[in-house]
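Protocol step 4 of 5: obtain the predicted structure for the target chain.
Materials: sequence only (see below). No template structures provided, no constraints applied. The aim of this step is simply to have a reference model before the mutagenesis design in step 5. Sequence pasted as it appears in the construct record:
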Amino acid sequence: MPSTARPWSAAAGEAPIEPDADQARDWARDELSKRVYEDAQPGLLDRFWARVGKWLNELFEDADGLGAGPGVLILVLAAVVLVAVAILVIRPRLNASVKKRTEVFAHDVVERATDHRIRGEQAAAEHRWNDALAESFRAMVRSAEERFIFDARPARTAAEAGTRLAAAFPDHRPEITWIQQRFDEVLYGKGVAAEPDYERAAALDTALEAARPATPASAEPSSLAVPK
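Step 4 output (structure tokens):
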């Protein structure tokens, strides 16, 4: 019957156990199968985990010739520590990168809605339809902020902005949902906009400018004000 003992048990005052390579491999696999490691494996970390897995396999293959002893235990602990450190260092950076890439505004400089419209028109004149569509959506969001329909938040995502716009202009909800999804597709996905997309986005921008927002109850409580 295989041993299920752990490397040590300080509470029980037991002497350290010296594992062989097979036991060390089992202990490492048990440790790395815990939820904390599974939760750190979204799609963005697939390649990282594939490399870690390959490295661990090579490590334990080399350890097979060492036999039982402290050296094998040190290798196991080193492998687990390295993986844990990688999770702590890499995962927050990846999450921050994803968050940054999905924001409506690419930087913290606040520009007017008219600035975004002008930039969109320039992009359309140069047939840069992705940029033209994106600037149209940014103009809608900035205009709503300027009209105090909801507060200005530089880190707001397209989905969040779309939700706020749809709440303020329920009659235009289908078109707002469309532009929000297209914004994400062409800017952060593999979507490609065309001239009809820009014309549709520009028409929605014009319609929202002329529309009166819904009751203040749909706005954010911290930013209630009479729209201009």
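Step 4 remarks: Confidence is low (pLDDT under 50) at residues 1-13, 36-42, 96-100, 217-228. The radius of gyration is 27 Å.
Proceed to step 5.
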